[in-house]
TrEMBL record:
This is Bifunctional glutamine synthetase adenylyltransferase/adenylyl-removing enzyme. Residues 1-443 are annotated as: Adenylyl removase. The keyword Oxidoreductase does not apply. One of its GO terms (biological process) is regulation of glutamine family amino acid metabolic process. Belongs to the GlnE family. InterPro entries: GlnE, GlnE_rpt_dom, NT_sf, PII_UdlTrfase/GS_AdlTrfase. SUPFAM superfamilies: Nucleotidyltransferase, Nucleotidyltransferase substrate binding subunit/domain. It comes from Halothiobacillus diazotrophicus.
């Protein structure tokens, strides 16, 4: 049993009592001096430490307290004693931190935070001291425009994450904003100044003197490592990481933090480097990269005999960190909450978002805490940087006692249990979910061995299930000739795994050759982003889902090829087929946009991705036959509504920041008018298809005197609303690398392209009642309020009702609608012989729509209930309920309409023309044509 010699305790306790120690402190002294020979020796040889320690031991530390102690300490020290003073205060603080940790006065997080704060303050103190000396000699560094430049110090690794262990080195990177030179009498280039400053900082911290050292400094994480310049300007840093940055450097920058120098400039640098660390897409390449890093560490540990290393060994600290960092690199670009420097906060987010089970998170956090306490108390023994379990019995006993165990034999099983759980979870997460590539796989041979004869290759393909092995071989070899030699080594390695997996999955499916061609075409589109190849390797369910969708729908295949970021969504097939309602869609979009509150461009890119993903969900369910035709249109319409609402709200809020809110003075007082979007056509009729554009009309209700905004820049309300409309159209229709939201058509507004982009309610009502053509009133039958100022909804509904319910001459109405339809038929392209167009052909969808609109305009004055809805199905139902339309005819029209609409969706997903053989849908067309004849024949 390790015991502190009684004589040593008496000596130490007497010095402590002189400094004011109470009985509790003396009891703690016996514990801390027993488990840490370093602290015992320090207090024995430097009794003046007691005066500094006694007031600090019992209370937690705060950053301002540490800064104040540093300021007070150095205020009374001469410059020539700077390095010695820095080592002295370091020793005081290290004993204070160890004391509180071992005696249970501080939890692990306080200990790690205090150690990190000590390093921060030490670096900052050294920087300020040597910066002043160099400036006195050379002047202040300035850029070419005369702006003063300062050094930026980045803390990496555990220091950056406020997770520094007791006797750790500190990983630093030095940088500065711009080149230039100093402004003194002996000027030097900025780069020289900052390299000199960096060298002096390192020496003050790292050099071992009779007083010890402050922190060992490791600069190998800088660009080009030991071969690189000690300090680089920002543009050189950005260029390096953009062109030469390696994957392990992305891991390193997860925890990067500005710890000293120019903090504002340092934050700018980290923001500039963030795209290097966090990708916008899911980075499944992180799995393979992390496996490689872990394997390299394991090989090194085995070579050096360091299996008992609690940091790098199996189930060690590094495995917990790797788990967190894996998900940070995988999803951090899409989920900013994961962009945390703290491993514990990262694990909490992974649990809260259900990316890892709560039980796993609890075990990882518990194990991490145990290991970090073990690491600290191991290093506190002799102030040595070690993570290997001790060999000497005395040191083993000290560690066990420090950890609260009475013996090594009781401590070790607890440690092993934590390490076992961590290593098991690490293995589960990193375990490749694909079948490992087998060298004897015949399809791997077909893919890799170009010398393999056609006969043998086709035999292998046929044996695996291809019904047309020759076509499969020709497709495969043609694709390989075109692409394989042009890609990087990492892409070739991934293709060598992916392509045989693809062949296995495709071989026995429907449309094997066309599906193989579709998937290979998509792979061609993502060769420059090999992380998508990694996704399809790591997530076999995503590959199977891709094959299924490409087989079912060329349209979906094209969508995925144009927007490969959507491949991320194939990882969870169950979620892919979930169809959220309007409220769920709103919540989903709000959650996406709230991640980037200050970045409008990123918000709108997220909006485009939201639309693409939402449409993919609908198309996937539609292609698999699990979504009824009317629900398809509902979902597509809801997606558009949610997108429009988001664009309007953000556009309006942004313009209000500049112009203020619109106001108008009326006889009733000052009001706040608003803006609204009215949907026409398929949007208004809740009948959007996959490629539908949006027919929009914009309205405002500003009326009265002094119709201007409230500032800061005052403009007329009509101009304010026009700018909202212009911005909405631009946002929706502009083409960006993230795609386009919707094509927009505003020609249905009053006076068409010659009219105002935004109409007042009063002007809109007057136009509809006095000047609108019949076809415009027909269009109004399908128009409805989409989003915007609520009072406009009720006003628009009243205008629509008044216009549609106006009594009309039945004969004239019938004649005009018939003439209009005949004109449309004459102007449209003729289908091929023996074919008809599902929408425009005789007996098609447009004829049904015209029949419905005729009946609405003919009977609405007597039966206003029939115009309550804007979609054809519910309008037909209302016509039957009001006895305007015989139920037999109405039901037959609904059946025909649904059948024809379903066919348009099917053929769109198949990338097929809407011209179909005339024998198809004969019954439906007969119903529509007979109804047309009944109502439109004199």
């Amino acid at each position: 049993m390790v015991q502190l010699p009684e004589s040593d305790y008496q000596f130490l306790s007497e010095a402590a009592i002189v400094a004011g120690a109470d009985e509790v402190t003396l009891q703690q002294l016996r514990v801390i001096a027993t488990v840490s020979p370093f602290i015992a020796q320090s207090l024995k040889t430097l009794p003046w430490l007691w005066v500094q320690l006694i007031p600090l031991i019992s209370k937690p530390n705060h950053e301002r307290d540490l800064r104040a102690r540093f300021d007070a300490w150095f205020a009374t020290r001469a410059d020539e004693e700077f390095d010695r003073a820095l080592r002295q205060i370091r020793r005081i603080e290290m004993i204070r931190i160890a004391w509180r940790d071992v005696c249970g006065l501080a939890d692990t997080q306080e200990t790690l935070f205090d150690l990190s704060q000590l390093a921060d303050q030490s670096v900052q103190q050294a920087l300020l001291f040597h910066e002043a000396a160099l400036t006195a000699r050379h002047g202040s560094p300035r850029d070419h425009s005369g702006q003063m430049q300062r050094l930026v110090v980045l803390g990496m690794g555990k220091l950056g994450g406020y997770e520094l262990n007791y006797s750790s080195d500190i990983d630093l990177i030095f940088a500065f904003e711009h080149e230039g030179e100093t402004d003194g009498e002996r000027p030097i280039a900025n780069s020289q100044f900052f390299i000199k400053l960096g060298q002096r900082i390192i020496r003050s911290l790292d050099h071992v003197t009779s007083d010890g050292f402050v922190f060992r400094v490791d600069m190998r994480l800088r660009p080009h490592g030991d071969e690189g310049a000690l300090a680089l300007p920002f543009d050189a840093m950005e260029h390096y990481y953009a062109t030469l940055g390696r994957e392990w450097e992305r891991y390193a920058f997860i925890k990067a933090r500005v710890i000293a120098g120019d903090f504002a400039a340092g934050e700018t640098l980290l923001n500039q480097l963030k795209p290097f660390v966090y990708r916008k897409y899911l980075d499944f390449g992180a799995f393979a990269q992390l496996r490689d890093m872990k394997k390299a560490i394991e090989v090194e540990m085995t070579r050096k005999g360091l299996i008992d290393n609690i940091k790098l060994g199996p189930g060690g600290i590094r495995e917990v960190e790797f788990i967190g960092q894996l998900f940070q690199l995988l999803r951090g670009g899409r989920e900013p909450r994961l962009q945390s420097r703290s491993i514990l906060k990262t694990l909490d987010v992974l649990g809260e978002t259900h990316q890892l089970p709560a039980s796993m998170i609890a075990e990882l956090k518990s194990g991490y805490d145990f290991l970090r306490r073990t690491e600290n108390r191991l290093q506190m023994q002799h102030d040595q940087q070690t993570q290997s379990l001790p060999i000497k019995d005395d040191d083993r006993t000290r560690l066990a006692l420090a950890m609260g165990f009475d013996s090594w034999q009781h401590f070790l099983p607890a440690l092993d249990a934590h390490r076992h759980r961590i290593h098991r979870h690490f293995g589960e997460i990193l375990k490749t979910q694909r079948d490992e590539r087998r060298d004897d796989d015949p399809l791997l041979t077909v893919w890799q061995d170009d010398s393999l004869s056609d006969a043998r290759a086709m035999n292998h393909l046929e044996h695996e299930g291809f019904s047309d092995p020759q076509a499969a071989l020709e497709t495969l070899r043609a694709w390989k000739r075109e692409h394989y030699a042009l890609v990087s080594d990492i892409v070739r390695q991934r293709l060598d795994v992916l392509i045989p997996n693809l062949l296995h999955e495709v071989a026995t499916g429907d449309n094997a050759i066309s599906t193989l061609q579709a998937v290979l075409t998509l792979i061609s589109a993502v060769l420059g982003r090999s992380v998508y190849l990694a996704l399809l390797i790591e997530q076999p369910q995503a590959l199977r889902q891709l094959i299924q969708l490409c087989s079912a729908s060329p349209w979906i295949s094209d969508l995925l090829r144009q927007h490969p970021i959507l491949l991320d969504e194939l990882v969870d097939p169950e979620a892919l087929y979930v169809q959220p309602d309007v409220d769920d869609l709103c919540a989903e979009l709000d959650g996406l946009l709230s991640r980037f509150p200050e970045d409008e461009e990123r918000q709108f890119d997220e909006l485009r991705r939201f639309r693409q993903l939402s449409v993919l969900r609908v198309a996937a369910a539609d292609a698999m036959g699990v979504l009824p035709v009317m629900r398809v249109s509902d979902q597509l319409t809801w997606i558009a509504e949610v997108a429009l609402r988001a664009v309007l709200n953000r556009t309006r809020d942004k313009l209000q920041e500049r112009y203020g809110r619109p106001q108008a003075t009326t006889p009733e007082g000052v009001i706040e008018p608003g803006f609204a979007i009215i949907g026409y056509g398929k949007l208004g009729g809740i009948e959007l298809g996959y490629g539908s554009d949006l027919d929009l009309v914009f309205l405002h209700d500003s009326d009265g005197e002094e119709t201007v905004t409230t500032g800061p820049q005052v403009i007329d309300n009509s101009l304010f609303f026009a700018r909202i409309a212009q911005k909405i159209i631009h946002t929706l229709s502009i083409r960006t690398p993230a795609g386009v939201l919707y094509e927009i058509d505003t020609r249905l507004r009053p006076d068409g392209v010659g009219g105002l982009l935004v109409s007042s309610l009063k002007g809109f009502a007057q136009y509809q009642q006095e000047h609108a053509w019949l076809w415009e009133i027909q269009a109004l039958c399908r128009a409805r309020f989409i989003c915007g100022h609520p009072p406009i909804e009720s006003a628009f509904t009243a205008i629509r009702k008044a216009v549609i319910c106006t009594p009309r001459d039945p004969n004239m109405l019938r004649s005009e609608i018939r003439a209009m339809r005949e004109k449309m038929r004459a102007e449209q392209d003729s289908p091929p012989p023996d074919h008809f167009h599902l929408k425009r052909g005789v007996g098609g969808i447009t004829d049904i729509e015209f029949i419905v609109q005729y009946l609405l305009l003919r009977h609405a004055h007597a039966h206003p209930e029939i115009i309550r809805f804007t979609d054809n199905i519910r309008q037909l139902t209302a016509l039957m309920n009001e006895k305007v339309l015989p139920e037999a005819i109405g039901s037959a029209l609904i059946t025909a309409y649904q059948s024809l609409r379903n066919a348009t969706h099917r053929r769109t997903l198949a990338n097929q023309s809407l011209n179909v053989p005339i024998a198809d849908f004969a019954s439906e067309r007969a119903t529509v044509m007979a109804t047309w004849q009944h109502y439109f024949t004199d």
